[in-house]
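User: Working on a comparison across species. This one is Acyl protein synthase/acyl-CoA reductase RfbN from Vibrio cholerae. Can you predict its structure so I can line it up against the others?
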Amino acid sequence: MPKGSQVIHIGGWKKLESEKVDKITFNRDIASVLGISPDDVVDIYGFTEQMGLNYPDCKAGWKHIHAYSDVIIRDESNLEVCGPGKVGLLEFVSPLPHSYPGNVVLTDDLGVIEESLCECGKAGKRFKVIGRAKKAEVRGCGDVMSEKLTKKPSYKPLSQQEERLTIYHSPIFLDDTMSASQQLDQIFCSLKRKQKWLANQPLEAILGLINEARKSWSSTPELDPYRHTGLNFLADWCEPNRLKNLLDSALNGQRAFLDNFLPRKDISHSSQKAMPRGIVSHWLSGNVPLLGMFALVQSILSKNANILKVSASESQALPVLLATFKGLSYTTPGGYTIHGDDLLGTLAVVYFDRHQTKIAEKFSANADVRIAWGGREAIESVSGLPKKYNSQDILFGPKLSMMVVGSDALDSDKAIRKLIRRAATDSSVFDQFACASPHTIFVEKGGLITPKEFAEKLASAMDKALVRLPTQVPDIGQANKIRSKIAEYAFIGEYWHDKHLRWTVLFDEGIELVEPTYQRVITVKAVDNVFDVVDSVHEDIQTVGLAMNGEKRLRFANEIMLKGAMRCPDVGYMTHFDSPWDGVVALDRMVRWVTLGGPL
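Assistant: Here's the predicted structure for Acyl protein synthase/acyl-CoA reductase RfbN from Vibrio cholerae:
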């Protein structure tokens, strides 16, 4: 280029964050290619949200604030204003936008400001862009359009893929020189052999061994991260009497069918028994790490061997839980002893990514029962894998849950306090990542308090719930989503939130379900009549926590279940795992009913 020419660049680099070089290198390389001075490579910062205001580099590499705007640096964790020299989120203020509320824009860019005289000779406030906040979304127009139009890279053909299998627990020693497929074959062969041992164990012994293991969960340091995300409930749920009741309910009233042939009530001279199906393959979800344990315990009790594929985002909970069986033993009152190490021989825990098609097909094709938890794409992927013609599927797909409060449930101060405390618990457990967690609470008008007063009291209860159910401060990406909802409700309703955004309560009127934001963001909606909500219920609604009484409660439950809802527990118990779940009695699908003698 001719001497004295200048080159400007105006952004669009967000998607290339992983390939970035420092600014000096960037300018030097461009200058070298184009034959100009590095000082003539000018970066211009700006964004459409503030009418295209631009901030070019000065000769010293700073961007100076002009008369039409101001810049503020805010702390990434609590949004407090930072002083000169401190790195934080860049926030721009300008009076120019009039057609929409774009006067104040908080970006995902990290920067620093200075107010002293600049090396270029200019006075006044100036800033530099340091980088992007962690987990920040791609928002630039060019980046979004590129994402829409660019053809995604294709993956290598199956024949060229390198097989990868991560093994967290195996029932046998595996040779590292074997391929992933060979290792998986060896695991299935071992599970098939060990399942025969499990099939001959008395149910009483298995229940006792699980009870011994659960007693240690409260004192296992490695399980501390899960203590407030379901571990305590799981430990209570595994109490022997609760499991016995679960088994009796699922197995025609008698759990003894798992051990012996018992006479049938409907046909004389005939007996039946619940036989294990064999090997159960589990696909676990990462959003609620312990959820898969509920299905695993039932599978063990029905004397099946199990292999579990953990999530990439959460692979530690299951191996730690299973490790508590190591070295354990339990002796029944009758003198029979079962060892935890033998039970571990009927279990395997692995991980493979979604592109390992051959591994996934083998994982599915060897299963007598397939259990999968996850979103629509994950469930459809599992459904499409090859399987045995008689394999049983238990698929727990994407579900949404909500809460409905009738005016009759708001009839006394005592009832209101109790209800709101329980509503706060349901809205806090699992940080709303469980399919049974509510995101919308419909409150009927006409009670002792108004729906808005309900929301105000719920905000106070959510704050108190932090003591019982602590949670982490959301990362910047999630925090920005929450702030976006708060900004929306500043225009259309009311809002309350913790200063660290660990909980948020939103309020408006209407019968529409809200899209989940997660991280304890709960929306209270005022309705004239709870039955107006019925039309918002669909087949993807799993749990509806109910707070209403008598005939009204029965009628409402019947109407929403006809529309597709699965469960209507009392408020405060929405996330308590029970059976049936998603309309399925899982235990019944884990056994084969066989008969002996008759019929006469």
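For your comparison, note: DSSP finds 16 helices and 25 strands in the chain.

User: Helpful, thanks.
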